[in-house]
Write a structure and sequence with these properties.
2 domains, flat, 280 residues, 9 helices, 5-stranded mixed β-sheet, Beta Polymerase, domain 2, binds ligand 0O2
Length: 280
């Protein structure tokens, strides 16, 4: 196949990866803005490179014109979670989406690969809009913990270095490391609820502070500067107390005050407008 044709073939896959990454990043944002723990920590995506596609096609004896049909990970999205339990949550979030249809799922967490590889794979059908019309394609979504990702990244590099001839001592080390990763994930799960609590309250506090700062900034436009400086000092004092309830009360009061000032300034500007138009 000519280079230009490869590019054309890969174009919709690039679009699919970009769109899906945006959507999952938005999910993270939605969780955080609502002060909720996000089961997704990070999202990345890639389109398989042409050499890597050729290599996979050769290995699996797939003719070039059948690549799109038989290679299901031309478009790949990787979702990284903090805890093993989050993987299940992400899987059900994906199952419930209407823009992705599940083609197959591969659970390499319950059924770890002989290499030691662990991850949850979902092959989904996803439709992109191209200038030739809609195109439905396969996208592979890999869902794994930070620890699983760490292991898979190192092991992938070793596979690349040694091809199929990984020395026994390296194999043994990587197998031992995979067991250590299982133990690490297990121990992290034991402190999950504590970590989630801390992260949640941190996120809630960050959201309240952002709202307060936004209101203070708006007040500078409509209220007396000295008054706003006083409010700002009060905010700093409450912030120092590290008490979420006080901070939340302060934010609510500030909301009411900002609304009041806004209404006042709208009233003043409409009076001014009326005066100007009557003087013509
Ligand atoms: P790359 O370079 O990451 O793209 P199959 O279902 O077996 O017919 P396939 O596509 O081999 O077809 O499926 P599988 O086994 O689910 O693997 C898909 C991808 O998962 C791989 O893509 C890897 O990214 C990852 N993976 C699978 N097994 C391993 C493993 O043992 N170690 C590591 N590090 N990653 C693995 P590619 O195309 O092999 O590679």
């Amino acid at each position: 196949m000519e280079m230009q044709l490869w590019r054309e073939m890969l174009n919709p896959y690039e679009l699919a990866v970009e769109e899906i990454v945006v959507k999952f990043n938005h999910m993270i944002k939605e969780h955080r803005e609502q002060g909720r723990y996000s089961p997704i920590e990070q999202v990345t995506g890639r389109v398989k490179s042409i050499p890597s596609l050729l290599e996979k096609a050769k290995k699996k004896k797939i003719p070039f014109d059948e690549i799109e049909r038989y290679i299901e990970d031309i478009a790949g999205v990787r979702i990284i979670c903090q805890f093993v339990e989050d993987i299940e949550t992400v899987v059900s979030l994906i199952r419930n989406r209407t823009d992705m249809e599940i083609k197959k799922e591969k659970d390499y967490i319950t059924n770890q690969k002989p290499s030691g590889y662990r991850s949850y794979h979902m092959i989904v059908y996803y439709t992109v809009q191209t200038i030739q019309g809609p195109k439905r394609l396969n996208v592979e979504i890999q869902i794994r913990t930070l620890a699983m990702n760490f292991w898979a990244t190192i092991e992938h590099s070793l596979q690349y270095k040694y091809k199929r001839n990984m020395p026994e001592d390296v194999k043994e080390k990587i197998t031992n490391a995979s067991m250590a990763i299982i133990e690490l994930d297990r121990q992290m799960s034991e402190v999950r609820s504590e970590i989630m609590e801390v992260q949640n309250s941190f996120q809630i506090k960050a959201n309240i502070v952002a709202e307060i700062l936004n209101n203070i900034q708006n007040l500078y436009r409509v209220a007396n500067r000295r008054e706003v400086n006083k409010i700002q000092d009060e905010f700093f004092q409450i912030y120092e107390m590290n008490d979420l309830d006080q901070l939340s009360n302060f934010s609510q009061q500030l909301d009411i005050m900002t609304e009041g000032y806004k209404a006042q300034s709208i009233a003043i500007s409409s009076v001014e407008k009326n005066c100007k138009s009557s003087s013509y």
